[in-house]
Protein: Cytochrome c domain-containing protein
Amino acid sequence: MTRKLIPILVLLSGMLFLAEQSQAIPAFARKYQLSCTTCHAPSAPMLKPYGDEFAGNGFRLADEKSPRYYAQTGDPKLSLLRELPIAVRLEGFVSYNLDGNEKTDFASPYLMKLLSGGELSDRLSYYFYFYFSERGEVAGVEDAFLMYNDLFGVDFDIYLGQFQVSDPLFKRELRLSLEDYMLYTSQIGTSRIDLKYDKGVLLTYGLPSGTSFAVEVTTVSLKETE
Structure:
């Protein structure tokens, strides 16, 4: 059994090494001239507190002014992006059954996500990603929302569109495990409500003490039953 585990451990160690060494060049890192590890640790998609603050500010750095990436149109009221920030995220996994009852599975890439996000103006931002599952199956758009940051000059933000209901608690996209969090995906009884994606509006307010409040109003996406 030990000899069988050695190749698996070597493979996993190599994958972890490559994950640490592979430095993608996402749009935010290029824009602000920062390393990916400024916001992510130990690796993407996990966020440091600084990265969580950056996302909560509408993908802006709180301690410096954002570089201007807009085309000069002659219209002071038009903020026309000169470049569309796009990133691609690939995920894979390796599973090994110690009892030998099931076959070993090597799935890479297991899924691919096409992401885009950034500032539309000094206060307005957007974020979305398109999800492709294994074997090229298209799952469609999951996150897709507009965000207005610091309404009325205070830490009061508005999100409008489609987002994860669980976001104020914990972002499911930040998990490193293959299996999902059943608490977020389960439906109780005959209810069709869960904590996954839904359309609606999210209001967040942060106090100077660090306490935050969140209020969500969402629609329930009922699936057709056969």
